[in-house]
Amino acid sequence: MSGGAGRMSGVRDVCVVGLGLIGGSVLRAAAAAGRVVWGATASAADADAARADGFDVVDTAEAVRRARERDALVVVAVPLPAVEDVLRVVPDGVRLTDVVSVKGPVAELVARVAPGARYVGGHPMAGTSASGWQAGTAELFRGAAWVVTAEDGTDLDVLSDVLELALATGAHVVPTTAGEHDAAVARISHLPHVLAAVLASVGADGGPLALALAAGSFGEGTRVAGSRPELVRAMCEGNRSALLDAVDDALGRLGAARGSLASTGGLAKTIEAGHAARRALVDQQAAELTDLTVDLTSPQALEALRALGSRGGRIVGLNGSTALARTS
Amino acid sequence: MSGGAGRMSGVRDVCVVGLGLIGGSVLRAAAAAGRVVWGATASAADADAARADGFDVVDTAEAVRRARERDALVVVAVPLPAVEDVLRVVPDGVRLTDVVSVKGPVAELVARVAPGARYVGGHPMAGTSASGWQAGTAELFRGAAWVVTAEDGTDLDVLSDVLELALATGAHVVPTTAGEHDAAVARISHLPHVLAAVLASVGADGGPLALALAAGSFGEGTRVAGSRPELVRAMCEGNRSALLDAVDDALGRLGAARGSLASTGGLAKTIEAGHAARRALVDQQAAELTDLTVDLTSPQALEALRALGSRGGRIVGLNGSTALARTS
């Protein structure tokens, strides 16, 4: 790998733009891992709180200028609608990643607004229903999946930076493409929010009697409908195209269940397919894993990383330029 | 109230037909509450296991004959498809309730097959994913809602029997009609199973990558898809008509979300309605309750009971012929 000036494995400086729950947790976790860190945020409250906790917070233009100067990794941790403004001040050649929950739209923005940046997309699959600097912790990412995009042409040196940072926070890394990430999270993260909202509404339409009888299945199936609506909307609406596909799949399957129940009275296909699918989830989570390695200097590295992700595998360590992975 | 021979509050004998998870738990809980109990079951395994635990298990015809003789309460605790065979041997005049998860179809069967029985429908909203005698416990109903049907013409003396039994097991009682019960559970119990199956299938269609990224919302939203398919089918298919209405509501709401996302890119209405609905659930569960009483000898008793249920209220005690209730 062609390391930047002063590059030593595991010690690249980290600049985080956006100091809410996720960005604030990245800043803390990177500092806890021994990195030199600084941050920037448009929120005066978050800036004051981060400074009060001893962190170096400067304005965004100064933060990214310093990052270019020190060849640091910039982590964009603002909501999707605010990403473009940050990208406008990013210098050419800067090492850049992000933690936004949708990857295709961010990649498009980077290509349009900051084409000179050395960008690799990221998405740590962690969060709580709280928000803001105060809600963050250095431990937020421990055990979580952190998606890293590995497109044809991706800068493997920056990808290694993101990998090191993610591993340093205690996450494991799932490599994939922006498109596959967006399709997957539409199915397993955004559709669950839409269905929870629909279920909650249909239940509440049953009035106080229905709610008085609600037990486990309704409580669990609607819990995420209690999340802040503006956050859920930003997440779901930001992944519009992939979410439409997932909603169409759900509509098709629910319509088929309706048709079968109305015509034959049976729900065998729906219930049995759902049971098999749930078992696939449980089996995959319980599967014995085997170790494998990916040589990040190989010409097939990006292809190997994507293959690992599509098999449900993950990177759990880095030894020089060799990624240590586990897969079922 | 016109009590039966030997009637003393709280000491009516109990005969349970069907000794699986629910029936076996009713038998144990009634015995633990000091009642004379006996049971019957078509399952030799459940019969042997119940006898081994010291319970009196006889054949079904003998069990219900003895119930008529002693003016006991018969509790039908077999799956819906087996209810008709039990009803065929029920003597005229017997005090009869059931614990089947759907009430309209059972009431229709009773009217057709055992019109001479003094029937009041019941449904304890409790269960686990396990089944059979061995899975039952005397504590299964503690804190659970136990629905009791209060139709025009319902025998208030038998309703009081069911109420006493339910309260003796530690449950609270929600009075309503068979139709309202079936509509409510379609929304808060059966639809959640159908949506969980749909969500699990759409997620698994995303392959190992999607399942590797699945976190809280998908795990929770699909958990009940892990229940035994034959039990879920029996429950959902048994409530076909009401479930069709609930599925149609869900299809309408999901279709509206799809249309809005496709046309304007927005999900405000869906997500905000879902959030308000979830809040209604949480608020109702956290609401301060006020006490009220229902005089079961009053000509308006059935109406008062139904009104209590539609307000989300419940009966928590019985003092002679006065039901002690709580409502928000």
Automatic annotation (TrEMBL), chains A, B:
GO biological process annotation, one example: tyrosine biosynthetic process
Cited SUPFAM superfamilies: 6-phosphogluconate dehydrogenase C-terminal domain-like (SSF48179), NAD(P)-binding Rossmann-fold domains (SSF51735)
GO MF annotations, alphabetized: NAD+ binding; prephenate dehydrogenase (NAD+) activity; prephenate dehydrogenase (NADP+) activity
Keyword annotations: Oxidoreductase
Keyword Oxidoreductase on entry: yes
Domain of life according to the entry: Bacteria
Residue ranges occupied by any Prephenate/arogenate dehydrogenase domain in the UniProt entry: 12-292
Family according to the record: Belongs to the prephenate/arogenate dehydrogenase family.
Cited PANTHER family: PREPHENATE DEHYDROGENASE, PREPHENATE DEHYDROGENASE [NADP(+)]
This protein's name: Prephenate dehydrogenase
Organism: Saccharothrix variisporea
